[in-house]
Design goal:
two-stranded parallel sheet
Length: 464
Amino acid sequence: MIQDSSQPSTWSQRFESALHPAIARFNASIHFDIRLIEYDLTGSQAHARMLAHTGIISPEEGEQLVNGLEQIRKEYRQGFFNPGVEAEDVHFAVERRLTELVGDVGKKLHTARSRNDQVGTDTRLYLRDQIQQIRTQLREFQSVLLNLADQHVETLIPGYTHLQRAQPLSLAHHLLAYVEMSQRDWERLGEIYQRVNLSPLGSGALAGTTFPIDRHYTAELLNFGGVYANSLDGVSDRDFAIEFLCAASLIMVHLSRLSEEVILWASEEFGFVTLTDSCSTGSSIMPQKKNPDVPELIRGKTGRVFGHLQALLVLMKGLPLAYNKDLQEDKEALFDAVLTVQACLEAMTILLREGMTFRTTRLQEAVNEDFSNATDVADYLAAKGVPFREAYNLVGKVVKTSLAQGKLLKDLKLEEWKALHPAFEEDIYEAIAPARVVAARNSYGGTGFEQVRQALQLAKARMA
């Protein structure tokens, strides 16, 4: 393990004594920003190449720096580079180790650069990669949803408003709603990526630099789409992180809503799904129980991501330009939100793919035992020329009477229907059959089987 606590302070001779040990620990970020080390090394290599490219250092010195940084990368990956709190942060740790490896030329790496633009660059490089990873996970999540939807186009499930039975749906239609939500998440992250993908490198501490640097050169080396036009903004902007946390929060909202439905569906009261042993746990004292831990944890972790968004908004709202130490607090929130979203997407994808099965017989029973076809009775009358509001009131009356008699609409005899209104004929029974009720809703975006099949094909084409 390579550590060196004997190195002098990284600060200038302006300081006559070292930090109090407790303050050093309080000030340090190495325990979490070590996550940025690969990005710090990559950014520093681009900076070194630019210094050589512009003649600020010699080509030989640039090559020494690049090779030394690559050696640190190798040491880190092999587990030999483990800087402690004495390094304060990952950037100081790398610079110190580089100087050990290549000598005084290592001290030239920080020419024309500040910790402020350096950490901003590292964070953007990190988040850029994580956004791509999450977008890939969203595609996998959508793929599992589409596979399920393919299997259940003509499986019916009760639809709810106010958590009350409303109208029957194609189960595929219900699942495709989450495909649409996650599509917006995927697109939203793509839009945010464009604003993450700007280089602050070369902004210096806040005012740029006197050296003849080439900011566009380093941006090109690091595959950034452009550079910040204002150095003050470059080092102090965290809009990109807030935007990401907003998008992350919406992803968690969607996962949490689905989680809540799975929790309900798995209950004895609903009984719409059965959880497999691989994705559920039992009770420590009640042997009969099978608990929906995965969706419950996702539902719980949603608040955690919301908290990170709120924390960063509050952090930024009162900061004057340019950099302030408060901004060190952005990273733990960002890192944890990334890990939480990635873990939740992975867990929900596994749950949908192999952790639960739909009980189709129970679902069929459910849509046959309610009054969710009442609207279709009103539509039936309206189609025969009865004003809809009059038909609506007539159906409300028959539902009330049927409830009092312990009957469903399908149990009423034709003479009872005709007593309600002479427009009723024998075809009323076909009109209120659950499969017919669903198939009839063939408006664009509706739950009709034809529309659902078209929506499935469009979603698959969009992903392809």
